Structure formats: C-alpha cells, structure tokens
Amino acid sequence: MTETVSGTPSTKVDKGAGQGLTLERVFSTAGVHPYDQLTWERRDVVQTNWKTGATVFEQRGVEYPDSWSVNASTIVTTKYFRGAVGSDVREWSLKQLIDRIVKTYTKAGLDHGYFATPGDAEIFEHELTWLLVNQYFSFNSPVWFNVGTPSPQQVSACFILSVDDSMDSILNWYKEEGFIFKGGSGAGLNLSRIRSSKELLSSGGTASGPVSFMRGADASAGTIKSGGATRRAAKMVVLDVDHPDIEEFVMTKAKEEDKIRALRDAGFDMDLGGADITSVQYQNANNSVRVSDEFMRAVEDGTDFALRGRKNGEVIERVDARDLFRKISEAAWACADPGLQYDDTINDWHTNPETGRITASNPCSEYMSLDNSSCNLASLNLLKFLKDDDTFDAPLFAKAVEFIITAMDISICFADFPTEAIGDTTRDYRQLGIGYANLGALLMAMGLGYDSDGGRAMAATITSLMTGQSYKRSAELAAIVGPYAGYARNAEAHKRVMRKHQAANDTVRTFGIADNQVHKLATQVWSDVQEVGAANGFRNAQASVLAPTGTIGFMMDCDTTGIEPDFSLVKFKKLVGGGSMQIVNQTIPRALRKMGYQPEQVEAIVAYIGEHGHVIDAPGLKLEHYDVFDTAMGARSLKPMGHVRMMAACQPFLSGAISKTVNLPETATVEEIEDIYLQSWKLGLKATAVYRDNCKVGQPLSDGKGDNKGKDSNAPTTAAEVETKTVEKIVYAPVRKRLPKSRASRTTSFTVGGAEGYMTSGAHDNGQLGEVFLKLGKQGSTLAGVMDAFSIAVSIGLQYGVPLETYVAKFTNLRFEPAGLTDDPDVRMAQSLMDYVWRRLALDYLTFEERSALGIYSADERQRHLETGSYELVEETGSAAELIDDDHPTVVEVRGAQATSLETSDVHDITDAEVVETKDTRGSEQREVPAVIHTQEAQTSAELMEKLTGTAVDSPLCMTCGTKMRPAGSCYVCEGCGSTSGCS
C-alpha cells in the first residue's frame, strides 16, 4: 500500500531500522532496461583549439543516444570517460560511464541497508539510470571523475577549511589547500581567528596579520595551478568586518589592480596569463567580508563601529561604519572584490548551531556550513519537467528529488575525503547540495519574465518544493538508517529551521495556475516534513544549494546554468561531423506560442531575433512581452536589482546559498554597488558578489571586438616579422647548403605555460631558414643538452633540404607540459614548447599560402578574416526547405554589400555585411524565408554577443580550447569543452 500526495504515488517507507525502502517505478518501465528505450549511435569526438588549430582531444566511435547533442557528448567524452585514450580500458560508451556510477551507488545502498529487498535496489538502479541517461539530472563532476574507478572515491566538489591563530595551523592550511587544489577542487575559509597586525604576540612582537599570510597561500595556489592544472585554483578567503585588519583586507586586490595598471603603462605584459602578471598578488582567491547585522544597522544609522582584537575581544579601534562600507564598495567597483556574506542571516538558518557557527563558504559561495566539511552536489534540469500544456509537473519533479537525494546520501557511505577532519565532519552531518539548472529557460518557455512577480513566484515555489521534498526524504531515511550523528545535540535548532522554511513557503504569493499547483504541493510537503521529522529526526544537516552547474549544465543540454537567466537569445549549435551553426534559442518559439502568437508571427519574430540578437522592434511582438526575453547580455539586459530580487525569492528555501554574481555595466557607480549590497541584506540574501564590466585590467584579450586592456594582440605584423622563402628542391642526392659566415638571424624570447625560453634562427641570403638554436633550462642541465642536440639535428636537416613545412607539420600539435598561454600575440596558446616554436618559425619564414595549408595565421591575418567574414548557407528554415535545393539559386540580401546570387552549397565572402534573408528565385515565385547561417566570426555565444552588440564580454579565454567562456554563477564555463574557471 502506498501513500499519495496530490494524486501521485509516494514511496512507501517501512519504519524501523534495517527494513529499508520499498520503491515503486516512476520513470523506468518494468521488464525494459532504460537503455533499450533509446536509439543509440556512434560518434567521433575530435576537439581542436580553434585559435591554434591544434587537436586537443580525439576519440572515435563513442556511443551516445541520438537525443544527446554533439556538445554534450563531446564534453562528457573529454571530461568524464576514464582510462588512457587509445587503450583497451578507455571508456567508449555513455552506458559504461553511467553504469560505473549507478552500480556503485546501488551496491553501497544494499550494503548499508537502504533497500528492503534486492528488487527495490534494482528499481533504484533503473530509476537512477533513466534519470541520468535522459538528462533529467546530473551529479557534480567529482562523482563522474572518481566513482567506480581505482582512484579515491571523492564525491564532493565543495570544501570549507579552518585556520587558528598558530603557525602550525597556518602551515597546515597551506598544506590542506594544496592537496585540494591538486585534486582539481576548491576550498574556502575564514581568517578572522588570526591576530591582527595591531596586536602583540606572546613574545612581545607585533603579529603579521591575516593579510600577510594570504600572500603565502596565494603564491601556493598559483604555483600548484601552474604546475599542471588547466584552470586557476579556486578558493575563497573571508574576513569578519570587525577584524582590526579589515581595511587592509578590503583594499588588497584594489591596490593590486592599481599596480597592474602602472605596470601595463610601463610596457609590461599584464594580460591574463601574461609573462608579468604573476608579479601581482592575491589574484587566485575570491575575497568576501563577513558583515553582521550590527554593522549594517550602523551603516544605515551613520554611527561608528568597533573593531575587536582576536585574542580577548577588546576594542582595538572604532571606525565610521559608512566610511568602511564605502571603502568596501569602492574596492568592489574597482576590481569586483570583496563580496559580502551576511553573517547573522546565514547563522539564523543554521541547523547545527550547537556544534559551531558557520564562518565561511566554498569558493563559489553557495555551500555554507561547518568548518572542515564538504558537500556533494547534484542538479536537476528544470525544463525536463515542463509538460505539453506549459505547466510544471510538480509531482514528477518531487519523485525525481526523492531518488536523487537518496543516491546523494548513499554516496557519503563510501566516499573518500582529502583530510581526516573533513571526512569526520561530513560523515557526522551528511551535508547534501541538491539544486537545479535551466531556470531561465523554463521561465521563458512558460512566458514568464525573469524579473517579474510571476517569474519569481514560480522560481520560489519550485525551490521550496525541492528543499521540502529533500528534507521529507531525509526524515524517511532517518527512520531506516538513522539520523545524522550530530542531530541529537542540534534537534531543536534543526526543527526550528524547518519551521522557518515552512513559514516562508506560506508567505509566497502565486500569480497563476502553474505556480499555484507547485505551491500547493510544496505546502503539503512542508507539512509532512514537520510530522515525519518530529518522529524520526533527519538524515542530513543540509539538503540544498544553488550551484553554478557549469560543466554538468552542458552535460544535460541546458540552455541556462543554475539560477541564471538566459545568457543570450542566439547561440551556437554543434553539428554532427563537425562545424556549428547559429540558432535562436529553442525556448523562444515555445514561449511565443504560449503567449498566443500565430505560426507566421512566431516565424517572423524568430527570424528578427536571429538577425539582431534581441527583440526590440521585432515585428508583431507586443511591448508587454518584451521582458520575457530579457537576458544577461545584450540590448535588453536585466537590471542588477532584477538578479538580486530573483535570488531573494529563492533564498528562504535553500539550506545553503546561491552562486551568482550581479553584473553591472561599466558606467555603474559606487553608489549603485552600495545600494545592491544594502538591499541584498534587507532582502535576506546570505551572500552577494558584484562585477562591473571592464573593471579589471588583467583580463583576457578580445579577438576583433571589444576593448583590449592589455597588450595589443591585433597589432599589424611588421614587414620585418614576415619573410618569404624559396624552397630549394633536391632532385638527386642531397647536398648540404651551408649558411654564410655572416648571416641574418633573429632571437625570440618566449613564455609557454610559465616556462621561459629563447630561440635564435639564422637564414640564408634568400631568407630561407637554415638553422635553429633553442635555449631552455640551465646550462649543463639535461634539458639544455637535449635541446642543443635537437637544434643541431634540425639545423643540419634544414641545410640538407628538408622543407620547413615538413618540420612544422610534424612538430606542431605535440602535447606535453609545459603548455598553455604564451606571451606571443600571434600564438596565444600552445600545446607544448615544440608546438609554439614551430608555429613561430612558420610565421617567420613561410608564406601566407604555405601557412594557410597548415592552419597557421598571424593575429593580424585572423583579425582581417574576422572583419571580412566567411558565411556559409548551411540550411534553410521555415518554408525554405521545400522551395530551395542545390538545383535552384538563391539570393542572399545583405547590409553594406551588393546582393549575391549563389547556390545553397556555395561559400561566399561578404565584407562588413550581415545576412538578412534569402529569396527563392525559381521562375516568377519569390518567397522570403529565414536562413540559418554558419559563420566563422564567432565560436561561442559570448563571442556571438560581442559580434551582435559591438561590446566586449568580460570573460576569460578557455585554457583548453581557446574560446571565450561565459558567466556561470560566480565563475565561468566554456561552451566548447565544458571547462570551468573554478567550479566543478
């Protein structure tokens, strides 16, 4: 017999330890394996760095469902398949990957008494498999990396450390952070226990203060990153607002930004990844000030505020609260740091105050819990629960949450942890972080504006249902396998927080049928939480957060990440067999139909958006519907407070916080940042971070569009830098052509991935390369000796007539460390030192035609290509498919260039023009139809937005594939390969 909630079966729970869960199928079908319900196909995954042409990854014949996009399969294959590429043990099918995870979870569930019978375990396995293979949810990256492999079974992505006021503790902090960074994860901690520089040591000397020790930790993070990681170390540093060194802490990164400007103006290379940027401190961490209600009230009232010593709490100094708040906002205006964390709000929602306060967060600021703890994450794809009638399937969503929370809790039973203290705390409190992605796409598809009462109500009710259902399942699990170890001492506090969640749910005002249905179920679920929790306790101290969902968002083919709105209305879709095409977001037609637009109106509006990238003046679109299509970037970008209000709507229904940055335009003022920080506190947020466009000097270069704040990578190549060569053809026996005693040569200094070197190349009188000498490593070292021998061998080969093109073809794209960003504007990234050297030699000594065949271009040549554009008519939409084929010419009408007749398979160049429409010219019939155009101008949605708006997107370049990343929560994610800038 089963319970029912709003007409939907609910899992039967047999009370009493050891009896286990009795499960019923919801998603899978009895007698049919979830894999057998899908159509599978083989694909080739070949990933290249589009800037350098280097092959980054290649695995052919991988197996995926045909419903998975090329982008999703590429990211999963490159990031999550285990085993050496090319070996027999390498995973080659999504089935192998999911089985590795799900079977490990199922076995652990059986071993630890979670299931009543083996039959229930099989149902759990099939349900979890169905949800994963159909992209309804995903675990965080460490699960895919580690579970079911010989590696340590680390399942957590978020860590919080602690440090005390002793040298042993400080050095241990460095060590623990290093191990976490080495594993590709990040950590946060609060430094407020460390004595300030205004206090005395027991020996009578003056303490160094936390900011001083931050330098060592920052250098450690940078060193570990440059020692082999492909992204910056992810870390969060927090300091309490009443710490005597708070002003020094606030200004650390702002002062470094001034240093960057001064060094740049003096001619140093201060680009992100530049040769001289490493001289700048504090760049490897996000900084946050932990503010109290007392401080924020002092800011409102204009009174002073006490800074207190760490040893005994005595008042060291009194400062003007508004003046300090102003300095915080000025620093954030200048360099985006520090953010704010609202201490009293955080701890008011803390379920374990008897164990200790919450003092810090993970690097992305969504996980907030006890010191020396960790959290594993999973996120649901909200768009999967949108029904055909455009309402949200709340009962089905609730059932998915049940299965996912069960799996997440099981993972703690077998998980490994980077330190013993973190393992103990996590096993004792079992913190979980269920969340979601695709909120922005869901709201748009439902015809709801992100910054609207209806949009916020829908987001709030979904978040409430998710957390309520999670805690209900947690209470049910407590009846079977027991509450978390720390529950008894925190029982009253935990139940108080459950009542706060329930009370917040009762205050939500709904605006339509869809959100009312979700709210009604959430209300019932929170009532069940109180009842079941009172009887059983809870299995988990924490249930939910909203993480960035960068890589796993792409794995689920989500249009939007985490709580974010849609980034832009147009984006790129990768095609099977290679290439990509520009498309209008698929949620837009659905939203237009939902709002009552007719098919021909939908077609016209979609075509307009495809051309302009926004909806302003779209034909037939009503003004009152514009806000549905507001995005993070573009002509109708959301106002900063729109982001804050959405966070405030969801925050009361989350155990943790929200990873999100409030983006502001470059013209934003310090006063606006002050207002955002103040309103965030008043609205009950736990944390806020801001980013003002173009506030950082050491940001990545923009290719073609936007301002370049560092070295000019688009500067034209001088005649001295490009020389032609004449290939001497050897017909018979090779004859050595020695170089003259006195010959022209050039010496090039370079940096690849932080490793420095020098190259001297000598040429014959006709400009043909004749010798190369490389200086790497110290004289007398093994590396220096090997390079000398290599240089001599290559030089003799060149003099005996081996074409330079042959060397370039053989040695470019070799991959080994050191690799990464270079200081050469023509070769921004290199797969290895050899890859860089031969690309540089090709640029110096080969003609344009010879280099083009090898895919090697200078920055100036790439820029000219971007300005000219290469457009290829890939496919027609709407009525084009039946009107146009390869046997009938079309006319492409453009702005700024004469109309051009062409066959649909032709490729043509249009200078400074943009395709507007195509027309069929068959006989007398002329039909206007929208066309999908494949361009070579942009490679990601971020670069496409730069093209459409003419403004730069402040995002770093991907270290793996070279494309511009886009914001995801408080970090960045690459659409091309799924790499993130610090969040798993």
TrEMBL record:
Its EC number is 1.17.4.1. Residues 44-135 form the Ribonucleotide reductase class II vitamin B12-dependent N-terminal domain. Pfam families: Ribonuc_red_2_N (PF08471), Ribonuc_red_lgC (PF02867), TSCPD (PF12637). Residues 700-720 are annotated as: Disordered. Residues 156-691 form the Ribonucleotide reductase large subunit C-terminal domain. One of its GO terms (biological process) is DNA biosynthetic process. SUPFAM superfamilies: PFL-like glycyl radical enzymes (SSF51998). Coiled coil: none annotated. It comes from the Bacteria. Its cofactor is adenosylcob(III)alamin. Residues 740-844 form the TSCPD domain. The keyword Nuclease does not apply. Keywords: Cobalamin, Cobalt, Disulfide bond, DNA synthesis, Nucleotide-binding, Oxidoreductase. One of its GO terms (molecular function) is nucleotide binding. InterPro entries: RdRp_reductase_class-2 (IPR050862), RNR_2_N (IPR013678), RNR_lg_C (IPR000788), RNR_NrdJ/NrdZ (IPR013344), TSCPD_dom (IPR024434). The keyword Disulfide bond applies. It catalyses: a 2'-deoxyribonucleoside 5'-diphosphate + [thioredoxin]-disulfide + H2O = a ribonucleoside 5'-diphosphate + [thioredoxin]-dithiol. Catalyzes the reduction of ribonucleotides to deoxyribonucleotides. May function to provide a pool of deoxyribonucleotide precursors for DNA repair during oxygen limitation and/or for immediate growth after restoration of oxygen. Belongs to the ribonucleoside diphosphate reductase class-2 family. This is Vitamin B12-dependent ribonucleotide reductase.
